[in-house]
């Protein structure tokens, strides 16, 4: 078994970086373009927008259930790298099966069972990393960033282009297909990579079950023992607004790719979507700088307003290529200023003994319940306004109504947060930590 000291060697850090690359390559390889694919294969189906929303909601249901799987099984009985390997090998079979489905209900169920296997692995790769590095604060960001790189590379391969500058016709050379994002090729590609990654996982350095022999607690796995923090009005406001902002957030992940594909970028839209991840990496490095100058409240508020601005641009200027690109690039501010800073705030607001539970609780409220509700709402809203997301004309006609709704919702949450949130003590603690 590897020790933290030995696992800090360059070779082992490289192995962990490859793990992160493959982990997020799989997710980014099919998830971004899944909406465009569903618009194509289920063309003519009634309530098509609802079908898309329900398909994306499967990963939110899995995010709610995943803590039980990781907290009650993987943490106590099996090495994390072995559980990770099994999940990805089985997941490969489900992705390959999903690529053959032509009935909406069956596709939704296939994706639900796939994400039940995938979502726990997001925590498992962190556990594998932390078990095998001796300076997590310094080493983990350098490992984790390769996950973002994996997501970006997957987008380039599916789009067969590096943001329109360099052709990358790998898929065309292998299959003859030019517009891969409206086919099942991304699902099949990710199934193959998932199988390879699953086998690779069994070669990773050991990460024994950290909670072996400890009593099981469903409440702790879900972070419910952190509910005591709601006695603090500031944390309650933060948690409530985090939940609310993730409802309009779901609109971006589910529908932006097919929106920009129809309006400007066609088959290369997945490559242009990676601008958001590139922006995310850049602003991640600037978080400490801005924290010292603006503080927690203003950074969280700016993150919320970035969502408002993005949706406002999509709603009012859907035919402006420059504004579409700017809206995508806002992802760095929207994500890092809200979610990364929110994680730092949670870490400082919670007592040391319940910090992990507090993070789990915020994750449950945001990526779980908040985005789950958002995906159902975006499907309902799209069908209610009769959005035709498969054509440029349909998006041009429906953009104001479709994107206007989440813009107004995000603005309302930002106003509530601005009026209600005050926590000088935790803000000062985060500032001091950022200054180190």
Q: Specify Rg, calculated over alpha carbons.
A: 21 Å
Please list the strands of the largest sheet in the order they lie side by side.
1-2
Largest sheet: 2 strands, antiparallel
Pairing-aware structural class of the strands and helices? mainly alpha
The averaged pLDDT comes out at: 90
CATH architecture of the largest domain: Up-down Bundle
Domain tally: 2
Which CATH first-tier class of the largest domain would you pick? Answer: Mainly Alpha
Number of extended strands: 2
- CATH topology (level 3) name of the largest domain: Growth Hormone, Chain: A
Strand percent estimate: under 5%
Q: Please report the number of helical segments.
A: 17
Principal-axis shape equals globular
As residue ranges, the low-confidence spans are 1-7
User: What helical percentage do the residues reach?
Assistant: over 70%
């Amino acid at each position: 078994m590897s020790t933290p000291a030995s696992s800090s060697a360059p070779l082992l850090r490289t192995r962990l970086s490859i793990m992160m690359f493959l982990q997020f390559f799989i997710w980014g390889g099919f998830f971004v373009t899944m909406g465009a694919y569903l618009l194509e294969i289920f063309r003519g189906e009634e309530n098509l927008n609802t079908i898309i929303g329900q398909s994306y909601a499967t990963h939110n249901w899995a995010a709610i259930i995943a803590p039980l799987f990781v907290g009650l099984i993987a943490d106590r009985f099996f090495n994390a790298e072995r559980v990770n390997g099994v999940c990805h090998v089985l997941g490969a079979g489900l992705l390959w099966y999903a690529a053959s489905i032509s009935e909406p209900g069956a596709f939704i169920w296939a994706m639900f069972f796939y994400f039940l296997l995938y979502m726990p692995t997001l925590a498992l790769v962190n556990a594998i990393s932390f078990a095998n590095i001796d300076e997590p604060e310094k080493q983990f960001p350098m490992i984790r960033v390769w996950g973002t790189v994996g997501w970006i590379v997957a987008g380039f391969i599916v789009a067969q282009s590096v943001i329109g500058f360099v052709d990358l016709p790998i898929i065309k050379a292998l299959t003859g297909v030019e517009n891969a994002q409206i086919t099942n090729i991304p699902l099949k590609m990710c199934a193959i990579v998932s199988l390879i990654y699953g086998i690779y996982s069994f070669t990773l350095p050991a990460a024994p079950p950290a909670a072996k022999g400890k009593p099981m607690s469903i409440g702790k796995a879900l972070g419910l023992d952190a509910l005591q923090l709601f006695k603090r009005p500031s944390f309650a406001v933060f948690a409530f607004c985090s939940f609310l902002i993730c409802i309009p957030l779901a609109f971006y992940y589910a529908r932006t790719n097919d929106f920009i594909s129809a309006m400007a970028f066609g088959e290369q839209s997945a490559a242009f979507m990676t601008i958001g991840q590139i922006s995310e990496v850049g602003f991640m490095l600037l978080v400490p700088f801005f924290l010292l100058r603006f503080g927690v409240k203003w950074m969280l508020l700016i993150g919320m307003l970035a969502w408002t601005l993005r949706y406002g641009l999509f709603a009012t200027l859907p035919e402006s290529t420059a504004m579409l690109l700017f809206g995508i690039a806002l992802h760095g501010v929207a994500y890092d200023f809200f979610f990364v800073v929110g994680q730092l705030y949670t870490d400082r607001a919670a007592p040391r003994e319940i910090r992990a539970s507090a993070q789990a609780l915020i994750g449950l409220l945001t990526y779980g319940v908040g985005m789950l509700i958002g995906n159902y709402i975006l499907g309902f809203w799209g069908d209610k306004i009769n959005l035709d997301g498969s054509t440029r004309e349909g998006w041009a006609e429906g953009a104001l109504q479709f994107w206007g709704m989440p813009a107004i919702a995000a603005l309302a949450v930002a106003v509530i947060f601005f009026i209600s949130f005050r926590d000088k003590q935790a803000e000062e603690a985060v500032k001091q930590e950022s200054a180190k």
